């Protein structure tokens, strides 16, 4: 499946998403990010958004910009943040500070050696954390990125990509479920 096919599957009420997915996946629509960063953010957030058709289309498109290490880095960011976002969101929301003093006892080795540039991995982790809604993780990754010299414009571009990818995944899921329900009646 291609990105064009995905865009064609979006219903008329999601016209803005059709336009935005075409825009945010370009250097002009994602100011400050390289094509490699754009593709890796798109792939990691598509995986996090959990729509297999969208993920397949994004990965196919992304492979024209990414080597195997960056594809693996995008997958790894989605995987580790899938775990960390739940755990750290719990710490943030539980309103019992004692949990924060306890060791996590979760393996997170990929963060120390992601196989790609560490700031790029932080950018992917931030974007996935935005999709997964972990405020504590967003704050932590944004701070590391800013300390590493990544601009607010670059960070905003990554989060804009994440927001569009997540919205497209949701509309595709809803549209498919509605079509299936109508067909079964």
TrEMBL record:
Pfam families: CMD (PF02627)
Residues at the catalytic site: 134, 137
Domain named Carboxymuconolactone decarboxylase-like: residues: 100-180
Catalytic reaction list: N(6)-[(R)-dihydrolipoyl]-L-lysyl-[lipoyl-carrier protein] + a hydroperoxide = N(6)-[(R)-lipoyl]-L-lysyl-[lipoyl-carrier protein] + an alcohol + H2O
Keywords from the UniProt entry: Antioxidant, Disulfide bond, Oxidoreductase, Peroxidase, Redox-active center
EC annotation from Swiss-Prot or TrEMBL: 1.11.1.28
Entry superkingdom: Bacteria
Top-rank EC class of the record's enzyme: oxidoreductase
Residue pairs linked by disulfide bridges in the UniProt entry: 134-137
Function statement: Antioxidant protein with alkyl hydroperoxidase activity. Required for the reduction of the AhpC active site cysteine residues and for the regeneration of the AhpC enzyme activity.
HAMAP family, A to Z: AhpD
Homology family: Belongs to the AhpD family.
Protein name: Alkyl hydroperoxide reductase AhpD
């Amino acid at each position: 499946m291609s990105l064009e096919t995905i865009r064609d599957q979006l219903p008329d009420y999601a016209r803005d998403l059709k336009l935005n997915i075409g825009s945010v996946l370009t250097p002009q629509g994602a100011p400050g990010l390289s094509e490699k960063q754009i593709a890796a953010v798109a792939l990691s957030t598509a995986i996090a958004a959990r729509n297999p058709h969208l993920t397949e289309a994004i990965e196919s498109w992304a492979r024209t910009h990414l080597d195997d290490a960056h594809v693996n880095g995008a997958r790894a960011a989605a995987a580790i943040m899938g775990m960390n976002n739940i755990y750290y969101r719990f710490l943030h929301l539980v309103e019992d500070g004692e949990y924060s003093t306890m060791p996590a006892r979760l393996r997170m080795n990929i963060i120390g050696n992601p196989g790609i540039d560490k700031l790029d991995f932080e950018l992917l982790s931030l974007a996935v954390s935005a999709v997964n809604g972990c405020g504590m993780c967003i704050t932590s990754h944004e701070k590391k990125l800013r300390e590493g010299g990544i601009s607010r414009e670059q960070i905003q571009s990554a989060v804009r990509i994440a927001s569009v990818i997540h919205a497209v995944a949701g509309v595709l899921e809803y549209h498919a479920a509605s079509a299936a329900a109508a067909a079964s009646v």
